[in-house]
Design brief:
The complex is a heterodimer of chains A (307) and B (245). Chain A has 12 helices and 14 strands. With 307 residues, chain A is of the alpha/beta class. The chains are: A alpha/beta (307), B mainly alpha (245).
């Protein structure tokens, strides 16, 4: 695991965007430090892309402020954008040009050499098709070209909005491997957005979860998992009596059906068993249930939204 | 980042896309069509003391100046904007470290140059046609000046079309407005109000003087066109800068 530094690359303060009556992004405070892979997670339409568009200055916030590299966009737009590479929503390309020519166009502005174009083509493995027109590319190849464009200027910060959208499993795998290499091999900090928890779980060191424009969680992946304490499920011959015994130990159990449930238990689970057995109860079933990350995610974002 | 790089980038985008050929084909087509028409009906045209080259020129530029030139300007503007509207390109362009003014200016310059190519082809084509159909000596210098003035009078149309094409990703709006304005100009150009209507100016400047339509002076056409162009360009750029992508 790469330890991130304390240098803040992205910070937002009360970031809000309203479209008419609808609040698309609601008071979002983000902080992303150098060296992190920040997974920006949320169901479709939660406000991820709108947030990213505001981060890049493509859209003005209704309220709140954005700082990249500790600078705001007003007077430092070019200074900021020189250090940022981005892929927003869908890859951008000119269909009548080849992959190479598409990179060449941006290289005029970024002032990078031909060698760098070849390098990024190599990184996204498009070298072989670089002379083909982009309109002949598959979706995955276009997506990779989009990532190559984002990498072209050797950015310090890479912002990728749903980079695996529309890719097949092997394409997703490939992009995942690529993103993992960014901080390690190139010293690039990454913000990646996705609606897919599994994808974020595999690459991110830090996570922000957004739902209906509100930031529901912001922290490391460990904190997200650690936030949730196990649920202990017990089947015992005299549940009501067992509940009382446990209560004496400051363990609050609930009876549901013929089972006892202990929520948010933070001691060793065997201590419950020891207590019950030593008091003469017959324990036929005792399970410690930890919520999977998916369940945590669904709890945070609301299950209805996931359907 | 120099402006020259932005211009270079914009030129690279034209590669292997042949829409800009329209700007060459449109005047060429009118030269051929006009010359053919002149030969076919020259008995009618050359009655009385008519000057042959003026009649030939009239055949070539009337339709071109009124309809084809403004329409080809509109189509070029649509295309220059469309390559950015499609495939999400504004977003990428706006995340590149470049000045938004530079993009807008570069696109305008390319647009102006393409109209210039049209003017050049119309000029050269008319001279060649005049030699082929044998209308005698033609005033090369006066025609060259008229073509340059015509180029300048295209500027306000060009700026408006660029503004509309960038503002609206639906091509129906800029093309529809261009069509309506051009068709209206057929009526207005022949009236006393022609000199106040921007879509009439290009055809009025191209017309040979004896047609009796040319009641505008060079300083008037130039100053009106350039001032209107600058105003429209500034409005267009301001809207462009505020655009959220």
């Amino acid at each position: 695991m790469i330890t991130s530094s304390n240098e803040v690359l992205i910070s937002t303060n009360g970031l809000t965007k309203q479209f008419g009556e609808q609040t698309s992004v609601d008071n979002v405070d983000l902080q992303i430090n150098r060296g992190q892979i920040f997974g920006f997670l949320g169901p479709n339409g939660a406000g991820k892309t709108t947030t990213i568009r505001m981060l890049l200055g493509l859209m003005k916030p209704t309220k709140g402020e954005v700082k990249l590299f500790d600078k705001s966009f007003n007077n430092n737009r070019l200074d900021i954008l020189r250090k940022v590479g981005a892929l927003v929503e869908a890859p951008s390309y000119y269909r009548n040009l080849t992959g190479y020519e598409n990179l060449k166009i941006s290289s005029e502005i970024l002032g990078v050499t031909k060698q760098r174009i070849d390098e990024v083509l190599e990184i996204v493995r498009l070298t072989e098709v670089s002379d083909k027109k982009v309109k002949q590319y598959s979706l995955g190849m276009k997506q990779r070209l989009g990532i190559a464009l984002a990498l072209l200027g050797s950015p310090e910060l890479l912002i990728l909005d749903e980079p695996t959208n529309g890719l097949d499993p092997s394409g997703i795998h490939e992009i995942r491997q690529l993103i993992k290499r960014m901080p390690r091999d190139f010293g690039i900090t990454v913000l990646i957005s996705s609606h897919n928890l599994a994808e974020i779980e595999m690459v991110a060191s830090h996570v922000g979860i957004i739902q209906s424009g509100k930031l529901k969680f912001h922290g490391t992946l460990e904190e997200l998992k650690g936030d949730n304490k196990p649920l202990v499920e017990i089947k015992v011959n005299q549940p009501a009596k067992a509940k009382e015994i446990l209560m004496q130990q400051q363990v609050h159990a609930q009876i549901k059906g013929d089972m006892l449930f202990v929520e948010n238990f933070d001691g060793p689970v065997y201590s419950i068993n020891t207590k019950l057995v030593s008091n003469g109860f017959e324990v036929s079933h005792l399970v410690e249930k930890v919520q999977t990350l998916e369940e945590i995610f669904l709890d945070l974002t609301g299950r209805e939204g996931a359907l | 980042m120099d402006f020259i790089n932005v211009l270079k980038m914009e030129f690279l985008k034209l590669k292997r896309s042949y829409v800009w050929l329209l700007m060459c084909v449109a005047p060429l087509l009118m030269v051929v069509f006009g010359a053919y028409n002149f030969v076919r009906y020259q008995d009618v045209f050359l009655q009385g003391d008519a000057v042959p080259w003026q009649k030939l020129l009239g055949q070539i530029v009337t339709f071109y100046g009124l309809l084809l030139l403004p329409l080809s300007i509109a189509v070029m503007a649509v295309w220059l904007a469309r390559i950015e509207h499609s495939e999400n390109n504004w977003k990428h362009l706006f995340t590149l470290p470049l000045n938004l003014k530079a993009i807008y200016l570069a696109k305008t310059i390319i647009h102006i140059l393409l109209v210039g190519i049209s003017m050049l082809i119309l000029y050269l084509g008319t001279i060649i046609a005049a030699n082929i159909v044998n209308v005698g000596d033609i005033p090369l210098k006066a025609m060259a000046i008229n073509s340059l003035i015509c180029w300048a009078t295209c500027l306000p149309i060009l700026a408006l079309q660029m503004l509309l094409s960038i503002r609206f990703s639906n091509i129906g709006i800029p093309v529809g407005i261009s069509l309506a304005a051009s068709i209206t100009s057929v009526v207005i150009t022949n009236s006393a109000y022609g000199k106040y209507y921007f879509w009439s100016l290009p055809s009025l400047t191209l017309m040979p003087n004896s047609e009796g339509m040319r009641n505008l002076t060079i300083p008037y056409s130039l100053s009106v066109s350039i001032i209107a162009f600058m105003c429209l360009w500034i409005i267009g750029y301001t809207l462009f800068r505020r655009q959220e992508v």
